[in-house]
């Protein structure tokens, strides 16, 4: 039987949250446990590019930290390539690597090439391979010109690119990417997504677990994904199957001029399954999932009666955000 690349059973992590006055009186009854992960069961197959999609605070980083042996679970088990993250941490560390968006790793006084060389050698990458891999990765992220610049002289985005390189140069069997495109410009993020796909195709034995709260990124990259909120997995499937689940409700997007909030009026109309509102500096976007197409007539009337001014109206295909809204009743933002 195939050994799963990642397997968790009832994985739970509590954080001790000090209540007010904790510094003065640290009594047991004043400390309340916070459930960051509440019994997560997951199985990722070898070769899969698996996504974790969830809002801020959902538990994604906590899960990745446990899987990469940086944090101990409170209960449940987690295995990487058949090795338990607690009892076999030492054996599994050489086959994994992790990139965390927004993380500042490396030494400021070393330049980019020296930092990458150091991390590769710590992992035991043969010296003759290191230079080649560093050059390739720097080229991919567009950092070749900064190879000899000190880390402390790089911008935040450039450091993030170096972090990204660091994750790949050890050629891990299982790679964890926590928000890899966080804070990167559009072109850099696109290049990185392209490289992620290419890297996975290069060797079918590689597995990747990626967290993101960019839905388009999850949709574009992931073979399967788990939607996670408040420490629980709400759904787990391919992006296409997840979207199919919400296809029974036609979805319309109305762009309105800023003005009175008509969301609650629209939500109460018969035949409206879900309604959400997003504000941009110039417009208000109203998204409605309806029991059937014909209901849109009463939605338009309801918006106008409520004082809303409609700029555009279109029917749209469901996105992963619609799946998320269906599952938790609000958007990811
Ligand atoms: N060291 C800690 N002590 C107490 N609570 C913590 C700690 N680390 C995380 N938490 C809490 O656990 C929950 C999950 O946090 P986590 O960082 O795993 O979320 P996330 O899904 O990665 O969020 P984001 O997208 O914002 O990075 C949050 O409510 C957070 O406040």
Automatic annotation (TrEMBL):
GO MF term set: ATP binding; ATP hydrolysis activity
Keyword Metal-binding in record: no
Top-level lineage group: Bacteria
One Pfam match: DrrA1-3_C
SUPFAM superfamilies membership: P-loop containing nucleoside triphosphate hydrolases
Keywords, comma-separated and alphabetical: ATP-binding, Nodulation, Nucleotide-binding, Transport
ABC transporter domain: residues covered: 6-255
InterPro entries with a match to the protein in the record: AAA+_ATPase, ABC_transporter-like_ATP-bd, ABC_transporter_ATP-binding, DrrA1/2-like_C, P-loop_NTPase
Similarity comment: family membership: Belongs to the ABC transporter superfamily.
Protein name (Swiss-Prot/TrEMBL): ABC transporter ATP-binding protein
Organism: Limnoglobus roseus
């Amino acid at each position: 039987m195939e050994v799963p690349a990642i397997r968790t059973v009832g994985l739970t992590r509590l954080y001790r949250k000090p209540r007010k006055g904790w510094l003065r009186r640290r009594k047991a009854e004043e400390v309340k446990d916070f459930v960051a992960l509440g019994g997560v069961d997951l199985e990722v197959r070898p070769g899969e590019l698996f996504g974790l999609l969830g809002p801020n605070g959902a538990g994604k980083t906590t899960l990745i930290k446990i899987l990469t042996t940086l944090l101990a679970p409170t209960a449940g088990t987690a295995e990487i390539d058949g090795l338990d993250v607690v009892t076999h941490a030492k054996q599994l560390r050489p086959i994994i690597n992790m990139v965390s968006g927004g993380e500042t790793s490396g030494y400021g006084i070393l330049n980019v090439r020296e930092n990458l060389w150091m991390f590769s050698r710590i992992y035991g990458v043969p010296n003759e391979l290191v230079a080649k891999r560093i050059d390739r990765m720097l080229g991919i992220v567009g950092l070749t010109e900064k190879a000899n610049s000190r880390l402390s002289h790089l911008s935040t985005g450039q450091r993030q690119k170096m972090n990204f390189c660091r994750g790949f140069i050890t050629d891990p069997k299982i790679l964890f990417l926590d928000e890899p495109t966080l804070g990167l410009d559009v072109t850099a993020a696109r290049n990185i997504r392209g490289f992620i796909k290419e890297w996975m195709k290069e060797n079918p034995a590689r597995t990747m677990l990626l967290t993101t709260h960019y839905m388009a990124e999850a949709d574009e990259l992931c073979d399967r994904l788990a939607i996670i909120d408040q420490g629980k997995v709400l759904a787990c499937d391919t992006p296409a199957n997840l979207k199919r689940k919400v296809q029974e409700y036609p979805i319309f997007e109305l762009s309105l001029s800023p003005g009175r909030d008509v969301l609650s009026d629209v939500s109460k109309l018969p035949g409206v399954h879900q309604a959400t509102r997003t504000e941009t500096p110039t417009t208000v976007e109203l998204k409605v999932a309806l029991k059937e197409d014909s209901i849109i007539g009463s939605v338009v009337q309801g918006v106008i009666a409520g004082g809303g001014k409609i700029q555009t109206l279109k029917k749209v295909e469901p996105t992963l955000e619609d799946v998320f809204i269906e599952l938790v009743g609000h958007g990811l933002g």
